[in-house]
Amino acid sequence: MDRYRLIFRRTGGPEVIEREALGPLDPGPREVLVRHEAVGLNFIDTYHRSGLYPLSLPSGLGSEAAGIVELAGEASGFAPGDRIAYALAPPGAYATHRLIAADRLVRLPDDVDAETAAAAMLKGCTAEMLIERCAKVEAGDWVLVHAAAGGVGSILVPWLKAIGARVIAHAGSAEKTQLAAALGADHALSCPLDALSEQVKELSEGGVACVFDGVGAASWSASLASLGKRGLMASYGNASGPVPPLSPLELARGGSLFLTRPTLGDYVADPAELQASAARLFQMIRSGAVPVRIGARFPLAKAADAHRALEARETTGSTLLIP
Q1: Can you give the pTM of this predicted structure?
Q2: What percent of the chain is modeled with pLDDT above 70?
């Protein structure tokens, strides 16, 4: 097998991604060498490549993958042949093989395949963090989910329904709205953002308890306006660009609102938290409550094309790169 990784030496569009051959890779103590079977594509990868989230260059790309341990270093706790997955590793998952710290890995249950794991780890642990530990959503709560047919959104919607929440989904097209409805959303909308809050407040009889917003600048005003009194705005992404500066008075005018900008890294910094988050995700997947939809697969070498499709909003569900 041709061993290589994808890197970028300067920020810019997808064209800056280039291929680099890999030499011998030997794990040190508490490290393993993983052969990737599937790599997850996430919007944060485009932030790294474009420079929105700056990295030291040259840099690898990608923080999520699943595969098989080829070599295990001393005290790693793993053995060759073990099936593993990871999310939130340092950028470098766009590769056929990589060395990685063992404490960032989770073991895959026998009935969770590599593609499902690579499609779900980062997005699914993000959903677990947002719903169960950040917002602490309860049965009966009204929740607005933006980009409801996307990678995180398509996991948020069925997860919320599984715990008894009432979900208003918003997506960018009628086709994507149909996907959100099929995932269980109580109401699925594709109206212009400037008309969204009025519809949300009517449907939820005054506003939602929580908004999960990974869109950013374009949806910011609509999200705040959709909240009920003491509602929580969880802004977890910037797909349309970073949000504008905010005065705390805006939260007061909206009804004593709460605002958080959570990142998964802060919620799984402890290896025990990572293992618990992944275990909860796998439980939801295996129960059938949370289907993992793989919308597209690209060869690893065609990662630039995958980035173009993602940024053009042409993808639904999760997108995979296959070495």
Answers
A1: 0.89
A2: 100
